[in-house]
Predict the 3D structure of the following.
Amino acid sequence: MSVKEELRGKLQDLVDSIGTHVSTPVKNFDFFLAEKWKIASDRGGSGNTAHIDCCPSY
């Protein structure tokens, strides 16, 4: 069994287990798994994360 098939099976098990217990306002999601380098861009981001801080200082 490939890693992709194994992950797909685990994801399906997770969806099956929480799908009966958690009510969600949205339905029919398509999930996909891919390595980050396959879906990332060559360009840098917007730079908008420079000022994100975990703990505000007062």
User: Anything to note?
Assistant: The mean pLDDT is 75. The radius of gyration is 18 Å. The first helix runs from residue 3 to 19.
